[in-house]
Every structure is written in C-alpha cells, then in structure tokens.
UniProtKB/TrEMBL annotation:
GO terms for molecular function: S-adenosylmethionine-dependent methyltransferase activity. Keywords: Transferase. It holds the Pfam family Methyltransf_11. SUPFAM superfamilies: S-adenosyl-L-methionine-dependent methyltransferases. The keyword Nucleotidyltransferase does not apply. This is Methyltransferase type 11 domain-containing protein. Residues 36-134 form the Methyltransferase type domain. PANTHER family: GERANYL DIPHOSPHATE 2-C-METHYLTRANSFERASE, ZGC:194242.
C-alpha cells in the first residue's frame, strides 16, 4: 500500500501514519488506561495504538472470525493480557458503564444499523471527559450530520478534520479487496466480506463525492 501505511497493522481501512498520529493526539490517554475499538476487525489499528499508548485494549466486533483472528495477532503487538477481543455490536457492546478512557472506530461505526444508538453506546461506556475518535466518509454535508447525531447522543464534537489524501488509498485498497475476495470471505466471514466488496464496487466518481473525516467526540465531564 506504500510507505505512508504501516504494514504490520494489515488494515482493511484507511489506517495511515497520518491517521494514527492524529488518533494518538486526539485520544489524550494516559498509560494504563482502557481503549475500546468498536468494529475492530482483525485488530490491527487498535493493537498498534495499545502498544503506542501503553494502554489496555478491548476490541469489539460482530464477527466471530474477526475476533478470533484479532486475538491470535495480539502477541505480535502487546504483552499477554493487555488486549482482549469479544463479540458485540455497535449498539450493544456488553461493556460496563464508564469503563473506557477512550474509544476508536476506524471506518466501521458508519455501518451501524442505528448510528445515534451506536454513539449513545460509545458515550455510555466512556468515562466522563473521555473521547471517541472515528473515521467517516460522507457527502460534503456529512460532517454536519454527524455533529447533529453526536448532540442527540450526548456527545460534544471537538474536531472534524478533513483527510485530503484518502482517495488514492481507497482506490488501491478497493482493487486489493476485489483481487483477494476469497481470502476476505475466509478471514472475515461472508457478511463482513460482502460489505467490503460492495464498497469496492463503487465507481471513482462516488468516492470523490464522499470526503473522509476524522471526527473527535467527547463525553462531557458532568454526565
């Protein structure tokens, strides 16, 4: 994928050095805290961040296949017991109230069946003052829509940062997905692979109409 992308992460998403650097900065987490990765897939971005920030990681994904693969990769990044992976959905993670110092979702949360409910769930599991950092690809007004949804969920939007370099990456990634469709189905399961391949079938013009944003949302201190 090029030198701008961390090979060890092996992402199925727009996980570049640029993105990881901004996520580290936005989370503002202290060593020893707990990071939750919603829609973790095979775990690469969350595991990389857990190592970089010296925090504990809980990855959540609906796919049992993805959860198993992520657990197998954990030892390549972090110490034994530093990361765990479990099945759950965006709207129902099964995690305790206020147990997460930070939450991430890299190119995943927009697939939630109910986006506001997913944001409410992220708020519920965050400590007061904790941050949710997510990536989205939307129509030009999409960032404003997420601002509205965040308000309904009780979250404050601190930042909506435009990623101006994502188009070429996605075109390369889509080509790889199509080329390795059978491997995707084996590693992620039919449902997750179908979602990715559906995305990969869209024409370049559609991609260019959907800017990519890194959004930072915060649970207020007094809630």
């Amino acid at each position: 994928m090029g030198e701008e992308y961390p090979h060890e992460v092996e992402p199925f998403s727009s996980c570049s050095w640029w993105l990881l650097g901004h996520v580290v900065s936005a989370l503002r987490m202290r060593p020893g805290g707990r990071l939750v990765d919603l829609g973790c897939g095979r775990g690469g971005p969350g595991l990389w961040l857990a190592r970089a920030l010296s925090v504990r990681l809980v990855g959540v994904d609906f796919s049992a296949v993805a959860v198993a693969l992520a657990a197998e990769r954990a030892d390549d990044f972090v110490s034994a017991g530093q990361a765990e992976f479990r099945q759950g959905t965006f709207e129902q993670t099964g995690l305790p109230d206020g147990g997460a110092d930070g939450v991430i979702s890299i190119d995943a949360l927009p697939f939630a069946k109910d986006r506001v409910a997913a944001l409410r769930e992220a708020r519920r599991i965050l400590v007061p003052g904790g941050r949710l950092v997510l990536t989205v690809r939307e129509q030009p007004a999409g960032a404003d829509d997420w601002q509205t949804m965040a308000a309904h969920a009780g979250l404050e939007v601190e930042q909506a940062l435009l990623n101006e370099h994502h188009h070429d990456f996605w075109l390369r990634l889509f080509a790889l997905w199509r080329e390795h469709a059978d491997e995707l189905r084996t590693e992620l399961g039919e449902r997750a692979a179908a979602n990715l391949l559906r995305e990969a079938s869209q024409p370049r013009s559609v991609l260019e109409e959907r800017p990519a944003f890194l959004m930072v949302m915060r649970r207020p201190d007094d809630t």
